[in-house]
């Protein structure tokens, strides 16, 4: 069995156990903003809070989270190392870049055909995170992450996505993509990744669970990708998400479904206290509420095991 990189080092793929395939721990879009204008950030307190949340999820039967926090979302490995050292939860980390429209300013003039005309600098950065360690640490990423949202496939989004795709082709690392199902842009994502030679069976089309458009979801799945049913506790109600999952299972797509919350322990996306106002948006909701609801809806324990344990393992190892 292959080994998987985590924030504490490699573990056997069979040690991943029950896995939430799209989560975050700390998301911070602007450290400068938080440092200057927020009074709800204290590093030690937030690390304690994260450890407590992960330990609670571990007691509830979650063994691993895939932390989809990358550049643009405030990923800071020293914080994650401190958290990982104090919890038994496996934390599998990502590399890549998160933006909805433009590349960050440090890449605006650097790259092919730009003022500083060099090969795409993002791809080797991502490859280094996967093969050597993130940002000079010995913590290696295990998968890639990028995003496309309501603005669609802007030039900046396409540039990032192609850089991520090339890193995937070079290293074999799988990809998770934040998408905007209401505009069906998971299909645009698959087109670009396919053009770069990515194996779509190693891709999670994230936030697919936000859609009840079965035809759209089936089209994504028929191209080979996993569907991220990964915002339980936020927005669209759990019964609707479960109904969509049930329909997809009935149509034969069980082995392409992964489940999660897309939750976090701290974010500057929301005002102070914003997370506390979302009582189901946390790592507890699936093990305590969603799994019983799935069983009541007729989803079997074997099917839950496939979505919760086997499929994330297949995804992260590239073994379908």
UniProtKB/TrEMBL annotation:
Read off the Pfam families from this record: PTE
Q: Which UniProt keywords apply?
A: Hydrolase, Metal-binding
- So which domain of life are we looking at? Bacteria
Record-listed N6-carboxylysine modification sites: 145
What's this protein's family per the entry?
Answer: Belongs to the metallo-dependent hydrolases superfamily. Phosphotriesterase family.
Which PANTHER family does its entry note? PHOSPHOTRIESTERASE-RELATED, PHOSPHOTRIESTERASE-RELATED PROTEIN
Recorded protein name is Phosphotriesterase
